[in-house]
Design a protein that fits this description.
Elements lengths: L1 E4 L17 H9 L2 E5 L5 E6 L5 E8 L5 E9 L2 H13 L3
């Protein structure tokens, strides 16, 4: 999957760096299992787990014509949000 990232104008780096998330972790979550649902303004939200075990929430806009996406932000799920996601995963049949 070809990914592009929102660049923070102040730091000139991908915005995900402010949340201590790497491009590789984003790619792992987007290409793996998890919950993918609509978000505001045509964006999508993906919840999933990295190979290292971190739970991330990613906001992205998929490109219509190909296997690529524009990643707006990504951050680690914490406390209640993480527990709720893990609970939903256990309830779903695999």
């Amino acid at each position: 999957m070809d990914l592009r990232f929102y660049i923070d104008p102040e730091s000139s780096e991908p915005h995900i760096y402010e949340h201590s998330v790497t491009e590789r972790e984003v790619e792992q979550v987007l290409s793996g299992p998890g919950e993918d649902s609509p978000a505001n303004g045509g964006a999508r939200m993906k919840l999933g787990q990295t190979f290292a075990g971190r739970f991330l929430k990613i906001i992205y806009v998929p490109d219509e014509s190909s296997e690529s996406a524009f990643v707006i932000t990504a951050y680690e799920l914490r406390d209640k949000a993480k527990a709720a996601f893990r609970r939903r995963r256990r309830r779903k049949p695999r």
